[in-house]
Amino acid sequence: MPITAVIVRLAWRNLWRNYRRTLIMIAAVAVGVSAMLFMTALLRGMVNEMIRGSVKTLPGHIQIHHPDYRDDPNVVNAIAQPQGALRETLQSDAVISWASRVRVPAVISSERESRSLTLLGVDPVREGSVSFVTDGMVAGRFLDRPDDAGIVIGRKLAETLETDVGKRIVLMSQDPANEIVDRGFRIVGLFEAKLQSIEEGFVFIGIDTAQTFLRLGDRVHEISVLGADYRALEPLYQAVVAAAAPQLSVLPWYRLDSYLGALLDLMDGFVLVWIIVIFLALAFGLVNTLVMAVFERIHEIGLLLALGMRPFLILAQFVVESSVLLLLGLVIGNLLAWAAVAGFQQGIDVSVVAEGMEMFGASAMLYPELLPGDLLMANAVVFLLGIVASFSPAWRASRYQPIEALSRV
Amino acid sequence: MSTVQCIGVSKVFRQGEQVVPGLDNVTLAIEQGEFICLVAPSGGGKTTLLNAIGGLDRPDAGEVWVDGQRIDTLSKAALADMRLKHIGFVFQAYNLIPVLTARENIEFVMQIQGVSAAERELRAAAMLAEVGLEGLEDRRPAKMSGGQQQRVAVARAIVSRPAMVLADEPTANLDSHSAEQLMELFVALNRKHSTTFIIATHDPRVMSYAGRIVRLLDGRIVEDIGQAAA
């Protein structure tokens, strides 16, 4: 392809005629792209923390319920423990962990105060691998057996009830026969959570103890499943749906918590907008560089046309120049971004604004995460829109009349 | 049929409200292998006629035919193709591509024509020898003298063996020795390859090499000496 070779050769050599301008433009693209990618990685890291934190708080990635339970969390809307195909699926490699829970509304009373809340009967070992509670103990201990007779409550709730570890409280709820059931429990531990509402709204007892207390038999209200990656959940979700009995309700995290699901969609959109905004700033520099290159070389453009080069090839030459410039900037920008993300793998401490971060459910440490999809999108947007932006000066260059261009010095 | 035929070609230039005649009803036929000088004082129309013949500019009226094809109505791309296949240009200001070496400048037109690398190399080497530039093939224009640059421009114009070479004041920037060498090269190429040379000039030294001299004044042909028999 002699024509392609000559176009590329001309483009490459012309690019380095004014090497300072070229280097400045490459640096601008590289810095812009690396900043774009690093900021995207930070945003992704923040959202990841928020979603992982929220998912870990209780929901897991997938939940299985009685079809009426979410509208009416009554003790009667219970389901059997997973068996057969569902149990096999839950024990497959795609599942990191799962836990069954008894989950009903209840009232807790100390000597001084009463509060309504959600009572969770959990298997301590399974629950520890699905949710946050075992990591969040601030006093005493977590439950150690399914038939543990103790209760674990939130730190804030303990303050409200003016109680503490070692003291007794009374739980009151309803059994499947609509009979009021109540029982005294000794507080064995206090947990803390990112959200105060969790500390105030949930208490934990052993699952066997809960089933006995509520006269539920072997039934539970919720099965929570944790997969490997909250973003790549669909195959596991479909497998669980297929394995679960048809009358069961199976929901992924983004439908269980539509706020988080919407947040993730919003972030995808925000990342694209962010990339385009940065690109627009770069585009001015890019177009300016090419416009200058065209103005400086009008006489040469006339010469090339006079020698028989088709206008399309003139356009192609400037587009190739722009492509080379963009590619060099992108390669360097990607490397810089990768180095920056790698350099902050231990996390960035944002404890100065920790309260604000925690309000949104994110932690005080940010872990930048560069997703292949973001990398691809940023590079594709910058490259393709860069080429589009370069078309205007390139088109102008190809439109000159040879004699008019040759007369310019 | 003649290699070049201009029939009633006219062209005016507008500078603000002022209208300057470039060519005024010029009719001219040039045969293959002619060595012709277009002679005129500055602004007389010789370059305008050369540009019209070369398809670099379009006349306002009249017809221009090159190798049996009417070119004044062709599209930009078709004109580019016509120039690429039929015409070699030598400009007063050499007009080499500054980012290419002497060899690459000479190979440039062949490259656009799609000539293979081996063939290009062979022809470029032969042409470098013919114009006496052996050893300078890897130099860029900025590192060559005016005479050397003009030789490269000539080599570029004729290496793809065009039917005709159009030269606009080719000796204007050369000393007398270089000018003489260039003209002898033109004559040799004209004789060897039967290439048609059309040279716009007002240099009497150049005219002395011409087989035919066409004089223009104010855009009109006022004298045509040595015209080949039709």
Fold and architecture overview:
The complex is a heterodimer of chains A (409) and B (230). By secondary structure, chain A is α+β, with helices and mostly antiparallel strands. Chain A has 15 helices and 12 strands. Chain A has 2 domains: 2-54 and 261-406, no CATH class; 60-256, no CATH class. Chain A has helices at 2-15, 19-57, 84-90, 124-130, 155-161, 196-201, 207-214, 234-243, 253-256, 258-296, 298-306, 311-343, 354-359, 372-398, 402-406, and strands at 62-65, 95-109, 114-122, 137-140, 151-154, 168-174, 180-191, 202-206, 222-227, 249-252, 348-349, 365-366. In chain A, the strands form 2 sheets. A 6-stranded mixed β-barrel of chain A has the order 2-3-8-5-7-6. A two-stranded antiparallel ribbon of chain A has the order 11-12. In chain A, a hairpin with a 5-residue loop joins strand 6 and strand 7. In chain A, helix 3 (84-90) packs antiparallel against helix 8. With 230 residues, chain B is α/β, with parallel strands linked by helices. In chain B, helix 3 crosses helix 4 (117-130) and helix 5 (146-158) packs parallel to helix 6. Chain B has a 6-stranded mixed β-sheet, sandwiched between helices. A 4-stranded antiparallel β-sheet of chain B has the order 2-1-4-5. Chain B is globular, with a radius of gyration of 17 Å. Classes of the chains: A alpha+beta (409), B alpha/beta (230). Chain A binds chain B through residues 2-3, 5-6, 9-10, 13-14, 17, 299-300, 303-313, 401-403, 406, and chain B through 51, 54, 56-57, 76-77, 80-85, 87, 89, 91, 95, 97-100, 104, 108-117, 120, 156.
SSE diagram, text form:
The complex is a heterodimer of chains A (409) and B (230).
Chain A: H1 2-15, H2 19-57, E1 62-65, H3 84-90, E2 95-109, E3 114-122, H4 124-130, E4 137-140, E5 151-154, H5 155-161, E6 168-174, E7 180-191, H6 196-201, E8 202-206, H7 207-214, E9 222-227, H8 234-243, E10 249-252, H9 253-256, H10 258-296, H11 298-306, H12 311-343, E11 348-349, H13 354-359, E12 365-366, H14 372-398, H15 402-406
Parallel strand pairs in A: 3-8, 5-7
Antiparallel strand pairs in A: 1-9, 1-10, 2-3, 2-6, 2-9, 4-7, 5-8, 6-7, 11-12
Helix pairs in contact in A: 1-12, 2-10, 2-12, 2-14, 3-8, 10-14, 12-14
Chain B: E1 4-15, E2 18-30, E3 35-39, H1 46-53, E4 61-66, E5 69-70, H2 76-86, E6 87-90, H3 102-113, H4 117-130, H5 146-158, E7 164-168, H6 176-193, E8 196-201, H7 204-207, E9 212-217, E10 220-225
Parallel strand pairs in B: 3-8, 3-9, 6-7, 7-8
Antiparallel strand pairs in B: 1-2, 1-4, 4-5, 9-10
